[in-house]
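Protein 1 of 2
SEQ + STRUCT:
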Amino acid sequence: MTITDQLIDKLRTVPQAVMPTLHWLLEGMYCRQILIPEGTVFVGRVHKKPHYFMVLKGSACVSTEDGLKEIRAGNVLMAPPGMKRIGITHEDTIFVTVHRTEATTLEEIADDLVEFDLRARYGIGNRQSWARTRGGHASEAGLLQ
């Protein structure tokens, strides 16, 4: 088991943060905005496709393909396929990702863009326990904005 897997398993035992998430679709583009509170350790999912990863507000220490980096409001990163982000926020932080997809529901978007992870605490629309139920629908997870 890797150190990352050990960390993820340990994080599953602590209370989970509330992370308000907004979603937008426009002509084959999906935009996702998430607010992660100060001091939150977060673990993303493995993404299947390249996408943009932007910091609108705040700062964090985040894993990148080049190792750990301090990122802050105004930074724009290109995220390659296969990337899984792990980090900690230094203050309330807003991340935005922009993806190409022809999917039109949150469930289809998740299937198209990220690898399924049975151990994930959050899933479609940042709804807890998605991986355990795996039957949620966009209407249950929150409407696209």
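Protein 2 of 2
SEQ + STRUCT:
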Amino acid sequence: MFARTGISFENSFAPYPLCCPARATFLTGQHAHNHGVYWHEPPYGYGAFDDSRTVATSLQAAGYRTGFLGKYLNRYGLDRSKVSGQPSHRYVPRGWDATTTTRPPGATPTASSTASRRRTSHRATVAASTT
């Protein structure tokens, strides 16, 4: 449906116009006082974000393939994931079939980004060979 007709946000408002809380709000549909991301530094930045239920998990559950390109949340790649408890430089948030995210200086490149690119390339190869 999205690919066929497109989608446009012509009149939208940011209830908390700061990068990290705004991204968390976009991903969850919740206000900052519900998702707990109030700032872009610890303890209220990426490390406070429970990203186990986002627009990506909902779209994926409905049968869509999903991908994330660009910046996730500030300190993703540096802080531990609230969901897994592990360092986020290897964490791929649930619901994303493929991810390519920007990383802050000093963050290690992720195996997940490389694996996601491989998965995406594989899908493209399979799709090309089956048509």
